[in-house]
Recover the amino acids of this structure.
């Protein structure tokens, strides 16, 4: 992969990382810290059983979305790190270079199309 494409992908990843961190912060999560995976919800006034039930549902949804974003954030950070240490763009399963077009379309890819296909078929 040429340096120009790599720079382009890195810029994209850095932007994506910032956006994910911002999304998580907006939701009350604390990305990149050891804080519990629970959003800081403002104390709500009413405390009837009905209120509690709907809060639990919302909280569960927020946590599962937050975990998804945190996973994406982790993948993004990992990709940026691998660009820095020179291992970016190598399939983690077979060690072959990942197709550049695939990386541009999905910069956090860590496996080549062949391995991905094999994995998907198995799943
Ligand atoms: Zn592979």
């Amino acid at each position: 992969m040429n340096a120009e494409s790599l720079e382009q992908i890195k810029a994209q990843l850095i932007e994506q990382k910032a956006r994910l961190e911002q999304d998580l912060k907006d939701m009350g999560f604390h990305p990149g810290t050891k804080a519990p995976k629970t959003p800081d919800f403002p104390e709500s006034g009413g405390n009837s059983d009905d209120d509690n039930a709907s809060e639990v549902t919302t909280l569960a949804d927020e946590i599962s979305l937050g975990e998804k974003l945190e996973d994406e954030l982790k993948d993004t950070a990992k990709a940026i790190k691998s660009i820095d240490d020179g291992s970016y763009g190598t399939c983690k399963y077979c060690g072959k270079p990942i197709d550049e077009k695939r990386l541009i379309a999905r910069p956090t890819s860590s496996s080549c199309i062949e391995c991905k296909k094999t994995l998907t078929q198995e799943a």
User: Anything to note?
Assistant: The helical segments are 3-26, 49-85, 100-105, 113-122. The chain has a mean pLDDT of 86. Residues 91, 93-94, 96, 111-112, 114-115 surround zinc ion (CB under 6 Å).
